[in-house]
Write a structure and sequence with these properties.
Pfam families: ADH_Fe_C (PF25137), Fe-ADH (PF00465). GO terms for molecular function: alcohol dehydrogenase (NAD+) activity; metal ion binding. It is an enzyme of class 1 (oxidoreductase). InterPro entries: ADH_Fe/GldA (IPR001670), ADH_Fe_C (IPR056798), Alcohol_dehydrogenase_Fe (IPR039697). Helices cover 52% and strands 10% of the residues. With 387 residues, the protein is α/β, with parallel strands linked by helices. It folds into 2 domains: 171 residues, 3-Layer(aba) Sandwich (Rossmann fold), CATH 3.40.50.1970; 198 residues, Dehydroquinate synthase-like - alpha domain (Dehydroquinate synthase-like, alpha domain), CATH 1.20.1090. A 6-stranded parallel sheet has the order 1-8-5-4-2-3, sandwiched between helices. The chain has a two-stranded antiparallel ribbon with strand order 6-7. The longest helix is centred in the middle third of the chain and has 23 residues. Bound molecules: fe (ii) ion. The site of fe (ii) ion has 6 residues, from α8 and α12.
Length: 387
Amino acid sequence: MLKSGMYTQLAPVLFGSGTAGQAGEIVKSFGCSKVMLVSDEGVLEAGAAGKVRRVLERSGIEVVMWAEAETDCPEESVKRAAAVGRREKIDGVVGVGGGSVLDTAKAVSAVVPNDDQVLDDIVLYLTGQKEYANAPVPVIEIPTTAGTGSESTFVAVVTSDKLDCKIGLPVPPSYGIVDSELMKTVPPYITAFTGMDALSHASEALTEQKNTPHSDLLACEAIRLIKENLPAAVKDAADMEARDRLAFASSIAGISFNESGVHIGHSAAHALGHLYHIPHGVCCANLTPAVIRFAAKTYPQKMKRLGELMGAAITSDDPEVIGKEAADAVRSFARAVGIKSFKELGLTKEQMMAAKPMFYGDALCMAFGGEVTEQDAADILADAYEG
Ligand SMILES: [Fe+2]
């Protein structure tokens, strides 16, 4: 029998090259007339934020530009943006950028109609013990990297000062627009690690507790598309066929992991990213092989399929062999697209292992569809370091 489970897609997504041109009509369909456009300096310089701004203004929407989003979405930056949003009396938010920008946009949409206390009480919201006094204002998410999937996921990952870690504030996006035209200026290294982030979403979604045949289907197709298109997009930024397929892969990986989930790799990536400020996708790229090797003990056939999608010819049915060969395929792929190992990034083994308490203490760690012991956590970190 196939595993039972619910098929969900959190928000509609308009996909395709040039679709950002429809942002005005979409924003207006939510009744918004004055929005905050959340972005960052890099995206502003690349032109994507200005392009969306012009589209919105042509539709008669007033735009308050806020291009100060910061990497890893620090709580303080959300508060600053929300203060501007409240003062300007915005009735919607549009995020244009990578994962940190989209997370900032989602968080701002919840904080503006409420207050900064939302960020202090983030655990209560995440665990369902508290609900927003006022509903978040509509938030339309327009990614400019093929990685995050944030336009389809229910949390804004915020760096909490109080908790000194990354944690999710539940804020569903209202709508996503995935337009590969906006991604053509992303530099090779960022293309590589954001693509590896999407791969890690799909890979972990296969073995999270809530996975379904539907989330598996999306995850496997995302893996296939990333394997086939990421090297081309890294090699030639203007390869729009590859960019478009990667944009789709990232989008369906986001839908897959919002229905299923991510787990061990993301717990460790959040800890390492927070402690050593390594880009999220780089952490994920280096952790995924170790997670695959661990997951193969419980899910050998799924990890065999993943390995095959990544180009490995796995003839054995021994979980140890499957895990090693699938992990090797992903690691070689990461190196081929230019991802440096933790060692090459200058991290020491001691620093790596020092992330264990934060990693193992993260709730996502227990979302893996099987037992994860403290020793497993240590072994995964060691494997990710040595691999
Ligand atoms: Fe991720």
